Structures are given as C-alpha cells and as structure tokens.
C-alpha cells in the first residue's frame, strides 16, 4: 500500500521521544496502582507534560472534570466510570462488517487529524522486529503518539504505528512491539494499553492502540490462567473466554512474536478480538503474591457489525479488562457486578467455536 501524506501539518517536525532497549523498565514493576509521582520515568514526564498542555489549551472535545468513578461491590471488583460526554461529543465511529476491512483513505483516518492533536513521535533506536514496508520513499513513516480527543481517562492517547503507511486496524508485529515497549517505558502501574479489532468495537480503521492511566486495580490484573500450549494460557476467571501471556524478563522479541502468532490466527479466521496489556500478578500464583509481571490478554469474540450505539455500554477491551466506560446516567446508577459479568459473557465465542480455536492454538504452539 502506498504511503499517504494526508494533512501537510503531519510532515512538520514534532517533538520526538527517542529510546533504546536499555530504557525499557522490564525490572521496574511497581506493586501498587497508586504510584509515588517522584518515580515517573522520562517517558511518563514527557507524556504528562504534553498531554496536560494539550488539555489546558483546549485541544480535547471535553475535559474530565465530570468523570465519576466507583468500584462495584461483588467478587469481580469492576471499576465503573461515568463519562456522559463521550456519548455525545466524540467523533462518529465507523461502521464495519468484516474483520479484514481494507483501509479506505476517503474515510476518517489519523492522517486527517489536526496537528495540535500530535504529542510526539515514538522513535526506537534499536530497530523493529520486521519492517512491513521496505520501499525507499523520501518521507519515512512515523510512529506517532496523539491525543484521544474524546478521552476516557487521564493521559488517554493513541499510538499510531507507521501512520503514513495507511495500515488497516489489524495487529502488525511492529505495532505490537511498539505497544509493548511503550508500556515498558512507563514506570506507572496504572498505565494500560489496549487494542480493538474491526468488528471488536474499533472506531477507526487505521492501525492504532489506546493507552491511558487509571489508578485502580482492575480484575484482569489478578485472574488465574491454565496452560494450553507453549506460552499461551487460557483465562480461568474472566467472564469472557480468552487467552493470556505473561512477561517478566528474557527475550522480549520472542514474547512479542508468540502473541503475534495468535492475533494473526484470529485475523485470518475472521475472528474479532480485543487485547489488553497491563502489569499484574503471575497467572499461576496465589493472588496474595507480591510478584508482578506484564500480562497480555487476548479475547476472541462474537463480531459486532455496523455502527455502535454510543448510548449503551459497549464491551470493548476496557470493559473486558474490568474498566467500564458508562455513558448513560441511569445505567451508571443501576449497574451491578452480576449484570456486567452477564453482558461480557454474551460476547464470548460459542463453546463449540472456542473449543475448535483452542485446538488450533495447541497446534500453533506445538509446531
């Protein structure tokens, strides 16, 4: 696919964030979501300064002043947040009918954003696992960090890998590497990253990952998992059937490749999916353990076709992880642990399809 220059303002020089593999805080895994702000990493400082400036200058569609948060009573411990403006003041989401929907430059994409929405360029100095495009065009494609103009939480940003390459919303190995490394550039336990596939409640068909800070422990940080094959585990406690990977140290690139093998399988089989990357407890240790790992959770799901209704609670990566974005006042008042678990369970693949997928995954990692 040829590159697209899009908005000329995207070609101008922006603030960059260069980093090397030595900057990845693999061994800095704080044990609490309520961080000591004196422990901010270089990445955290640059992100917060740039994001705060954009908010103070009015570049967002709304502020977070009216955000209200509560932890629902019950065994899951869901974190519900009332965010009414997200229903009425966000960009209109796209309408999709196939996971493999190709990129369409005539529809909204991130090459069309206002230059004010760009925070900085993420610049790894150690190279990426694989270069999807090896052409020698004069304008290199950049990995941009931009604001989410309709934020769900503090420091809500979008990572847009290779923005000018106009990639559809399907995980690439380079994009996955950038997302994983961006998490490891932060020293904050509450910094989380997510991905929604097409037909998995992605709003824009242009490759991007979400990230934001939320200083609450989420249910997905402590679910247990049982081994399936190789590094892949099946989630035990999630109300939606899914898979998990965990990382502490070792070969990061091998870890990323293993996750990519699963997401590629889902994409090829036209199975919508959601991904959540967070710090949390090991999958196979008692929940009172103080050990902390990086968890990558992947949920295959029933496809959501067409345009999503902004007035109801949509089950995307946030909700699957236990962070509920509630855009309706009455729903926020009556929401319960039981009702949410039931709603999330409904988007799981039927048991027969999940059983077949589990067998495919066993074969995938035994090759």
TrEMBL record:
Enzyme Commission number(s) from the entry: 2.7.7.78
Positions of the GDPGP1-like C-terminal domain: 233-364
Keyword Cell division: no
Ranges of residues in domain GDPGP1-like N-terminal: 42-212
Superkingdom field: Eukaryota
Chemical reaction(s) catalysed: GDP-alpha-D-glucose + phosphate = alpha-D-glucose 1-phosphate + GDP + H(+)
InterPro entries in alphabetical order: GDPGP (IPR026506), GDPGP1_C (IPR058865), GDPGP1_N (IPR058866)
Task of the protein: Specific and highly efficient GDP-D-glucose phosphorylase regulating the levels of GDP-D-glucose in cells.
Protein name: GDP-D-glucose phosphorylase 1
């Amino acid at each position: 696919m040829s590159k697209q220059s899009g908005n000329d303002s995207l070609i101008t020089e922006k603030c960059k964030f260069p980093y090397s593999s030595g900057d990845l805080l693999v061994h800095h895994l704080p044990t609490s979501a309520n961080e000591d702000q004196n422990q901010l990493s270089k990445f955290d400082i640059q992100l917060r300064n740039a994001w705060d400036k954009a908010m103070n200058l009015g570049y967002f569609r709304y502020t977070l002043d009216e955000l209200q948060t509560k932890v629902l009573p019950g065994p899951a411990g869901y974190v519900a947040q009332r965010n009414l403006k997200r229903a009425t003041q966000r960009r209109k989401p796209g309408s999709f009918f196939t996971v493999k929907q190709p990129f369409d430059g005539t529809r909204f994409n991130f090459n069309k954003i206002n230059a004010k929405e760009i925070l900085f360029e993420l610049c790894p100095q150690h190279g990426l696992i694989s270069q999807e495009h090896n052409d020698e065009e004069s304008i290199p494609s950049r990995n941009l960090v931009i604001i989410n103009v309709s934020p769900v939480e503090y420091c809500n940003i979008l990572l847009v890998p290779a923005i000018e390459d106009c990639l559809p919303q399907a995980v690439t190995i380079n994009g996955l590497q950038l997302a994983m490394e961006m998490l490891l550039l932060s020293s904050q336990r509450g910094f989380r990253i997510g991905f929604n596939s097409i037909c998995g409640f992605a709003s824009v068909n242009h490759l991007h990952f979400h990230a934001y800070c939320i200083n609450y422990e989420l249910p997905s940080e402590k679910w247990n998992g049982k081994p399936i094959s190789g590094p892949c585990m099946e989630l035990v406690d999630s109300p939606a059937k899914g898979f998990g990977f965990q990382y502490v140290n070792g070969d990061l690139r091998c870890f990323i490749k293993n996750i990519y093998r699963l997401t590629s399988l889902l994409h090829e089989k036209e199975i919508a999916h959601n991904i959540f990357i967070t710090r949390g407890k090991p999958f196979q240790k008692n929940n009172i353990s103080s050990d902390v790992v990086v968890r990558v959770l992947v949920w295959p799901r029933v496809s959501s076709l067409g345009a999503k209704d902004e007035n109801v609670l949509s089950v995307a990566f946030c909700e699957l992880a236990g962070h509920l974005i509630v855009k309706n006042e009455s729903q926020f008042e009556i929401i319960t642990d039981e009702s949410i678990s039931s709603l999330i369970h409904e988007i799981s693949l039927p048991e027969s399809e999940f059983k077949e997928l589990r067998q495919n995954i066993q074969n995938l990692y035994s090759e």
